[in-house]
Amino acid sequence: MRWLLIKDLQILRRSPLLVALLIVYPVAISLLIGFALSSPPGKPKVAFYDQVPRGQGIVRLGSQRLNVGGYASDLLSSIQPIRVRSLAAATADVRGGRALAALVIPADLPAQIQGLIQEGVGSPTVQLYLNTSDPIEREFVDQAITARVTQVEQAVSKQVLRVAVDDLQEVLNGGRVQILDQSVSLLGLRNARTIVSGTLRSLPAGSPLRPALRRVIDFADLAIEGLGFASPVLGSIGSPLTVQRFELAGRTTPTATYAAAIAVVVSLMFVAMLLAAGMLAVERSENAYPRLARGLVSTPALLAEKTLLAGGLAAVTALLMAAGVSAFVHLDWGRLELWALALGFGGLAFGALGTALGALAREVSAASLMAFGVSLPIAFMALVPASAVSATLASVLDAVAFAFPFRAALQAASSAFSGGPPALVPALAHLAALSLVFGALATLAMRRFAKR
Amino acid sequence: MSTTASTKPRAPLTARALSKRFGARVALRELSFELAPGERVGIVGPNGAGKTTLLSILAGVLAPDHGDLIGSGRRAGWVPQQPSLYSKLSVAENLRLFARLERLAEPDAAVERMLEQTGLRDRANDEVGRLSGGNRQRVNIAIGLLAEPPVLLLDEPTAALDPSQRERLWEFISSLGDDGTTVVFSTHDVSEVERHAHRVMLLAEGELLFSGTPGELERAVADGSAPGAGRSADLESALLRFLKLHGH
Ligand SMILES: Nc1ncnc2c1ncn2[C@@H]1O[C@H](COP(=O)(O)OP(=O)(O)OP(=O)(O)O)[C@@H](O)[C@H]1O
Ligand SMILES: [Mg+2]
Hints:
The structure holds 2 protein chains of 2 kinds. Chain A is 68% helix and 10% strand. By secondary structure, chain A is of the alpha/beta class. In chain A, the strands form 3 sheets. Chain A has a 5-stranded mixed β-sheet with strand order 4-1-5-6-9, with helices on both faces. The longest helix of chain A is centred in the middle third of the chain and has 39 residues. Chain A is rod-shaped and about 140 Å long. Chain A starts with a helix and ends with a helix. Chain B is α/β, with parallel strands linked by helices. Helix content of chain B is 36%, strand content 23%. In chain B, a hairpin with a 2-residue loop joins strand 8 and strand 9. The N terminus of chain B is likely disordered. The complex binds adenosine-5'-triphosphate and magnesium ion (MG). The site of adenosine-5'-triphosphate has 12 residues of chain B, from strand 2 and helix 1.
């Protein structure tokens, strides 16, 4: 078997164009698939802990009410919130990689806003816990939330301004205001000045009240002029909200790692299946199989050799690809030997499936076409989200995904890359079992292969 | 050659009532014969007569539907009609691979011997896929000879060879026979049978029509009672007349 393996490596080394195609093509396809599944990034998952009791999110602004809760739901529209009931739960979600960040709204936020607007004191603050282990994801979430907070701030400022300007207009021009559910008529500064200057004119020239009223009119003029300018100045009420950031060293979040794992496993699948099916068929197209079958190599040994060759080369390709991808996505290099284990087991399972196809197809071109044709549906059936299809179809897809190596290989790879769930060992066991099953099926298919 | 006649069994190969069919087509019909050590047997017969099928069964590549085969099988050297080589490997690499797969004690020595024998030493490092058809066939034959087998089965070995290579091959095969190696070959060139075979086996539509020396075949035609029977000038016309006499 060792000599056959060396022979196949020699053949591959002398077919550089074929090998280049065999590797470049799957890598290109899988990167495209990986990117397609990961971008646009979509809404980040954020643990959301709102401490403001229901119905308490109201801030009074002069005669008007401002619903802070309404703004909170605006904030949530740009993220995928995971509502939690405690600060501990929120930070645990970040540490465990289930959420990219945690956003905490303190109970006194409405009171703080109220205080800032009315008395100019108070610092309304929301807390944002960020996962520091993945710089790209961290940046992404920070920007998504900060941009939203800025929008909320602007909305609050605008509302404050409108309320303030309305109140000011009433001070200047008079009108009706609602105070404690009673409609009260307000005189207004301009009306007051008109009344005072009318009074002044009706007073005799030497009246001692004249200088005093004169001073009231002068003040009113000054106030009218001054307050007229005040409205735009009010707009400069800066940022009423502060985002307080906390850094948490959590696990890498699954989204990016998962996309990387998909890309790497798609490559693994293509290379292993095409190589195994193609190299087995080469034995027949070169007429060598009858000679080998005369006791030189047993059928299980021949299948094991092709499986090892294809699985090994595919695992090496996939490992190199993972190393390349890790420049863009955080993969845990400390677990390198687990990457190799996951990709090695996956390669063997795909290789065994490839030999079964090669044995059925018998010819190199037919085998490659078959391996190619079978791989794509296997991958996609394993990737269709259960929520996207009916329950019946979902369980059918689930069964198919269980019977082929793609999902198990994906679980093994994403677990090896991040250390997060799902667990590595069951996925490896699943892959080992599938290798044996497809090895046995390939042995059966060799009956067809052996026929002249 | 290191092998000697004394190490070989008395009848290296015995076939009893071998039959093979492919679907409805009968490829071999109850063939029985025995081969002696050092004997050279030439199998002749029209296309589709069953020559390749018979040699494949003797080589253990194909299983007969009925009948028994005693001896030979995997221990025989086999040279298939279609070259069975890796075209991306060089001549020497092909030889070395099969020498190792055959688990020869000294694979490199066997490779050297075969490079010498086939006269391909100067092409040893050329990819087989770039060789001419005849040279490819020489490598194909060399692989069958690597293990110095007690029985050698050759399916149209000389079909692609030039006259001097044919001569070289027959010289080599004759030397094997002197060592006690039993050789079975098929051919469409009757003169090869006449010159190099101790025995001729004539196959037609899966039936063994005749088995005996070339001289016996000519006499059988001459003594034939069917109309048109008479003495033939050579073995080839004797063969054709024999086939005609038997309705082929
Ligand atoms: N794999 C197969 N499937 C079906 N029929 C076959 C197969 N192999 C051989 N045959 C049939 O068996 C018969 C004998 O074929 P075989 O190859 O033994 O003939 P042959 O004597 O070697 O012919 P040739 O001189 O052309 O090489 C033919 O009729 C052939 O069509
Ligand atoms: Mg033939």
